[in-house]
Amino acid sequence: MAVAKVASGQSRAQASRELLCATSTVVAAVQRYLESGREGLVDRRARNGQRKVDERFRATLCRVLKGTPQQSGWRRTTWTRELLAREVERRGRVRVSPTTMGRALASVGARLKRPRPVVRCPWPARQRQERLWQLKCRAAYARPEEPVFYEDEMDVHLNPKVGPDWMLPGERREVVTPGNNQKRYVAGALNSRTGELTWVKGERKTSALFIELVRAVSNAYPTARRLHFILDNAATHSSRQTKQVLVQMGERVVLHFLPPYCPEGNRIERVWWDVHANVTRNHRCKKMSALMAEVDAYLEARNAQQTSSPLLRVAPSRRAA
């Protein structure tokens, strides 16, 4: 196209503007045509030989990406394109440039992502799975006279957690933060049978907040003979103050502790995730009272949706101030 436009009388600058390319590209194409004729316009990359990034190269790259640089003997903690090129070359493949490595990463679907921090349970795998199975069975076969609750606490920050949202190209929505952060805590108990939530709020995550929740659940289920709570190993759940209150309540409250660092065994974690996704993430409340009112409204609407389901037993509201 560059040669044709220049041959028709256009200048090289005019041809470059119409073709949306650099003037040097048009000059090079015309020069190649003048020197070699039509053969000079053939893509010379066809004679480059075998491709460097072939299936074997990609397979080696995938094996490298499954580990960390330190596992491969490097001192660096994260991969770069330059380091990946050196490691793949050390494993017997051809050496490539960082730019070629970038295209190779795209060809295998690799992306630059943040790792997910996790804490491993110190228990043996068999002991951990056995304990989780026991708690799962207790929740699955819960009876009305002995309901089972999943208990946990949630932090609510006045400074919003920033999360992804749909936006138009070239636009980035702003979330104004109050600056001085404030915290409130919500302690909740999720009925494993009905899916309803009982919750209380407090300014501090202490034993008093957990005791308040236990009493709220006890008042909400006055006919229950025994209340079972599946919960984590937080210090507030086994403190001296908590034990004294549970002794005063007799054998009506039974605590079943999850293995350490096993949030996936607590179903109420999904409820807190929904609260953050629908209320606290990217929120624009300027006062903590307004934000907590939004949290209450969401949880009340959720309870109303649970009780309206024909598959669930209808029960009264479980909110505690």
- How many beta-strand segments? 5
Strand content: 5-15%
N-to-C order of helices and strands: HHHHHHHEEEHEHEHH
Strand order of the largest sheet: 3-2-1-4-5
Show unreliable segments. 312-318
> How far from one another are the termini?
75 Å
Shape: elongated
How many distinct domains? 3
What is the radius of gyration computed over CA atoms, rounded to a whole number of angstroms? 32 Å
Largest sheet: 5 strands, mixed
Mean pLDDT: 91
CATH architecture name of the largest domain = 2-Layer Sandwich
By DSSP (H or I, 4+ residues per run), the number of helices equals: 11
Let me know the CATH homologous superfamily of the largest domain: Ribonuclease H-like superfamily/Ribonuclease H
* Structural class designation: alpha/beta
Which topology of the largest domain does CATH recognise? Nucleotidyltransferase, domain 5
CATH class of the largest domain equals Alpha Beta
Helix content percent band: 40-55%
Walkthrough of the structure:
Residues 148-291 form the Tc1-like transposase DDE domain. With 321 residues, this protein is of the alpha/beta class. The chain folds into three domains: 2-47, no CATH class; 55-107, no CATH class; 126-308, Nucleotidyltransferase, domain 5 (2-Layer Sandwich). Helices cover 41% and strands 11% of the residues. It is built from eleven helices and five strands. It has helices at 2-7, 12-19, 23-36, 55-65, 81-90, 98-107, 125-140, 207-220, 240-248, 268-280, 288-308, and strands at residues 148-157, 183-191, 197-202, 227-231, 253-257. It has a five-stranded mixed beta sheet, sandwiched between helices. Helix 9 (240-248) links the parallel strand 4 (227-231) and strand 5. The longest helix has 21 residues, at 288-308. The protein is elongated. Residues 312-318 have low confidence and may be disordered.
